[in-house]
Amino acid sequence: MQICQAVAEQDFVIEQTEDARLEALQQLRLLDTSASESFDRITRMASQIFGLPVAAVSLTDQDRQWFKSRVGVEHMSIPRHKAPCAQVAETTMPVVINDLLADPFYADSTLGRNGTRFYAGAPLVTREGFGLGALCVLGTEPRQASPAELSALVDLAAMVMAQIELQHAFGRLDPVSGLPSRNQFRDDLADLARDGQGEPRFAVVVDFARPDQISQISRVMGGARFDDLIREATRSLRRILGPQQALYYVGLAQFAFLSPPEAAAETYIEELQALLDQLRAAPTVGFVTDISLGARPFLVGEEAADDLLRGSASAAQDARSASAGVMLYSACSDRVHRRQYALLQDFAAALVAQDQLRLVYHPRIDLATGRCVGAEALLRWNHPVFGEISPAEFIPIVEQTSLARALTQWVLGAALDQLAAWQGGGVALTLSLNISASNLAEADLAQRIRLALQGRGLPADRLELELTESAIMNRPEQALAVLQDLAGIGLTLAIDDFGTGHSSLAYLQRLPARVMKIDQTFVRSLSGAVAGSDLVLVETMIGLAQRLGYRVVAEGVETAEVADLLARLGCEEAQGYWFSRPLEAAAFADWLADRAINAPAP
Ligand code: C2E
Ligand code: MG
Ligand code: MG
């Protein structure tokens, strides 16, 4: 009885060690990966040293010996049962069998039955002592291994292990997700090209969250929560894709994998759609994020890994914008993304260059008196390669990044310098600046503006800040607190592009804003509108805003007719091409002087 128990305990210990050994092997993610020159080089050396035609790096999986590298063998694996390499892995000792047929245990093994007579294997052992498999050489004639040959084999096995460790380290594994990184994706793709040149595949990127969601999650819940989210996403993907699918972590909240070689476009997109549905249904992941998938078809060996990932990521982004979930790569939208990427890369340099950024000034006209009462500062970028670029193109991109702070700081500095110059020249104007939604996350915004005004001896009531309705509605609570700070230092606040966001007036009323700028789409539709719903809409907006205590500014006035109509409707101020295009600082001063002479009497 006691003996039985001892044997059972021993079996249990062996099983445990075998489980741990298998886990160590699986974590290295070597099984079923492509052949690789770094291993093949060592295998060839082993075969040459012994002067034998067959050599392999053979890994001991649950029930097979799988060859990571092989010389002189066609198949990828043999059964583990009675494989000498399994003995090497289990004992972590070299094994030499001079003649398999003369060996009572191995005579009827797979190798023995298939004509192998000689075997020598040196163990592949991890630092923790787990035997992963063997570097082995095989011969079809009985022979012996000299001590020199055997010690060379042991050395080469150690080199295989060094290579495995090297692959595993050095930026090849992402520390949070535990997945192979973008570097590993590059190498694996190069390895794949050796076996599967020209094979059609898809590179798929799963993009888990919008950049603003990522920064919001990190800010509100902390970086550790973001890491948790990545781990949860990894687990969900792993569960859905299965343990065999190679999966990579290639960018912030971005995962990548390759389709199987036989995937056909239409059915594969359907499969990806099903994958997306499963991911969205995953309990925690889908809840806080906005997942999208992009797939880029390619021929193995004909595309660079980075281009593939960028293409698939850009398709994922398009999928999100189109609310499509999954999208195939399109070269056309990729060109747009590439330009956006280039602009973003170049903007930091533009901020410090002397001659790339400047402000232009768009007059604001008091409709009752016809006088220019202020100006809106608008940013212009003369890019060294692309030339003049509209703020409508580059600001939405820059706003998404940490450069938004520097952008607003630059505009603030340049605009206040100009305001100080006007003030010095006896021109009394109010200047408006546009600020971005992300500026609302800067705790020191009001403080910075106060210091900038103080430094130039300017009163705060000369400065107005415009914030779009949608920016405010993006972060309503934060907006309220920051706007209160800004109003607290005496600035005027304006709600820009009113009518395009989805704000509730009840909320807007809580904000300390005093100016409402009606978006130009409503104003421009007034042209030729004698009566009709456009007119009723603008009339209602003006009336409502005024009753709520706002001063109303109409943007986009392009004709005298619309200017007159707005004046009749009681709108206080207007801005638009009818009065002037936005002007360079010097031209603005001339325009103003000219207008003072010719202005209609109040
Ligand atoms: P916005 O603040 O609503 O500025 C008004 C835009 O409408 C300006 O375009 C102006 O040139 C244009 N506009 C004014 N009157 C008319 C008109 O009668 N007809 C037509 N067709 N257009 C008119 P711009 O300068 O291209 O600026 C576009 C947007 O870029 C601005 O819209 C603003 O949201 C943003 N932006 C510009 N400068 C800055 C800046 O310094 N910081 C930030 N955060 N955003 C800026
Ligand atoms: Mg504006
Ligand atoms: Mg506007």
UniProtKB/TrEMBL annotation:
PROSITE patterns: EAL (PS50883). Residues 340-596 form the EAL domain. One of its GO terms (molecular function) is cyclic-guanylate-specific phosphodiesterase activity. It holds the Pfam family GAF. CDD domains: EAL. Coiled coil: none annotated. This is Sensor domain-containing phosphodiesterase. It comes from Cereibacter changlensis JA139.
